[in-house]
Amino acid sequence: MNSLRIPILKIGDVLIASIQIALHDASAVQFKDDLLQKIHDTKARGVIIDLTAIDVVDSFIGRMIADIAAMSGLMGARVVLTGLQPAVAITLVELGLELTGVLTALNLEKGLAVMQRQTDQAEESSDGTG
Amino acid sequence: MAQAKAAVIRSDLDIVIARTLARDTAKALGFGAIDQARIATAVSELARNIFLYAGSGSVTVREIEKSGRKGIEIVCEDQGPGIANLDLAMQDGFTTSRGMGMGLPGAKRLMDQFEVKTKEGEGTTITCSKWRA
Predict the structure, then answer these.
(1) Measured between beta carbons, which residues in chain A are less than 8 angstroms from residue B105?
(2) In which domain, by residue range, is B110 found?
């Protein structure tokens, strides 16, 4: 029962992971390791983590998400968090975990749009300096 | 009044079982979605503390009633090392493990009442409750 892994899909240079199960600590750590490896293997520029199906994010999972965003950033991939339920957003802030610095979007579609904008901006600025 | 239900905490999987028990009980008692999430998150923090610091313990969830108001009471018990400095442990950001130091103060903010009884070398009992709006 520990081997339940979260599938990570690739579309273009974006990875998409939709978390559909209640994460326990070991599966969250596994997900972090899998995702970073996949960024390395695929040279992805962006990662969307969809939390639509998640009804509880406690401080451990919250920290894991913040870590994933920071680590992915070091590897050159932007993380956008999508589909946070109202109850999850409220409890996260009340808990004291505001996930500042993590990009978010209302849903997967808007998340992809955010990702596209980020990529375009990055390309424009690298063109501009050339 | 409904029977109390308990979850034994021995592994990180039991944390998920405990918070699901709390959420299901809160839902059955008529708590709204946001309070269900608050209660489940608080239980997740407290159950993790049991697992991290004491190794094992239990989480008991029961319905309570006071002057016509219904609520939920959660008792988290362990026979672990106890909390050496409770004032410090209740501060945001203080931790003696690799956690974020949000467990106790965070769980307290999410609940209406929160009481910690702890004795070094004997264990910790946290009783917290939330009343239905």
Answers:
(1) 96
(2) 5-131
Q: Are B132 and B71 in contact (CB under 8 A)?
A: yes
Into how many domains does chain A fold?
Answer: 1
The answer to whether B95 contacts chain A (CB < 8 Å) is no
Structural domain including A80 reads 8-128
Which residues in chain A are contacts of B36 at CB distance < 8 A? 55, 87
pLDDT tens digit sequence for B34-43 = 999 999 999 9
Neighbours of A64 (CB within 10 A): 18
Q: Beta strand pairing status for B123-131 and B69-78?
A: antiparallel
Total domains, chain B = 1
Has residue A22 been placed in a domain? yes
What ipTM describes this predicted complex?
Answer: 0.85
What pLDDT score was predicted for residue A1? 46
Judging contacts by C-beta atoms under 8 Å, the chain B residues touching residue A96 are: 92, 102, 105-106, 109
What is the model's pTM? Answer: 0.90
